[in-house]
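Section handout 9: paired folding examples.
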Amino acid sequence: MKRRFKPRTALAALAVLASACPPLHAAEHITLRNGFELDCIRRVPSGDRVRLYLIPTAASTQPADANYIEVLATSVLRVETIPDPTPTPAALAPAVAAPTPTQPAALTPSEIHQLLARAGALHNIDADLVASVVQAESGGNARAVSRAGAQGLMQLMPGTASLLNVRDSFAPEQNIGGGTAYLDALLTRYNDNIALALAAYNAGPAAVDRYRGIPPYAETRAYVARVIREFNRRKRAAAPAPTQLAAK
């Protein structure tokens, strides 16, 4: 496959989910040099890198210390303290209607291709790999919802979407942007080992770390094989010479 020729100085790992932190640390809004923004509750220097522990959400199910976002210290552009919200008495709080998901307009294959190409270029990931994940996750259905509650084209869990600043998982551009950023983070975390990144996308990075490889889950192993098979199919269809993706 097309390698991700991204200098490590430009990489911003975006590993998913949150970690609990001591309550004395104020939350911070981090802006990275690649334009990505996120909120964290704690920063821990580690050599030339810094680990960002994200604000935990109710949807987070991973162990507190197993998940973090590690980026190069030089990739942090700006750090801003998030002020504590001012409590509003319930009696004075205005009534707010519950938000309803945006009903996306039907996209043409060309428009979907453009979204995939744009997201892939932003993160130096082959657009065919992102497209293969979309196919395996939702079959291209922007309104897809799994039994576990994952939503949209790349099946983002609500907690994950929130951490990725995806406000509407049913909006194709937001969903693809967030899902590709997450995939980028996993590829960075596993040194561009595509099979491990895909396994972590499906089962979570904590499971991959626990088993030090693809977890022995039938669903996860089938998922990794399905994505790689779809990727190879796309490459064969696009070029006379077949491109095979070796996965351990």
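Moving on to protein 2 of 2.
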Amino acid sequence: MVDSNPIRPLLAVIPARGGSKGLPRKNVLPFMGHPLIAHSIMLARMCPEIDRLVVSTDSDQITAVARHYRCDVIVRPPELAQDTSPMWPVLQHAMREVEKQDEKQYGSLMLLDPTSPSRLPEDVSGFVNELTDKPDADGIVCVSQPEFNPFWHCVTEKDGWMADLIPGADSFTRRQELPTTYRINGMLYLWRRSHVLQASNWRQGRLLKYEVPEHRTIHIDDVYEMRKAELLVKNGLIEFPWLGVSL
């Protein structure tokens, strides 16, 4: 099948708001010898599939760090930089602004969340290849199998009593019978241009999943998560191949 909606050229966007409640200034805090956001920039530099890379931010400090690492910046308007601002309009704004500046259209947009810096160049390649091979797909999302299965372990409260989060979970009597479940881990997202500019929510449409091992995922939103991630990298349990490489 010929892909009439190619994903190249590919625009990668690193969204980095200046405000952060859980870990103030987290995007520019030192992490493994570099500001946290720099790891996503350095990863992108190792990926020939990425044709254009920008940081979307409202922060002068983040702008300075991005430019130090030779990354262009899209200034995010104040209405898209609030605590309650959803991510999807931020990405839509970035794509429109970059296309206006470059006077060209991009085939797709890849989201690189700076707080989930453990994706690898081969993950980016896998994303591009899988979405290219499925012309009828709108995007692809990185997932992993959590350490617990939510069918058995996730509950809620109903009328003051514990209740299964997933209806029908009590019908399973053996762990081996449980359906395989995945969680969206935040490492990578890739959507075709038409989906980015037309959909009102990124979860709409036909999305593929790309699985990585759960032990390779990290998300940094507080001091504990940052220190834990540092230990994992220092002990070789998570690989950062761009460290020590001149990019």
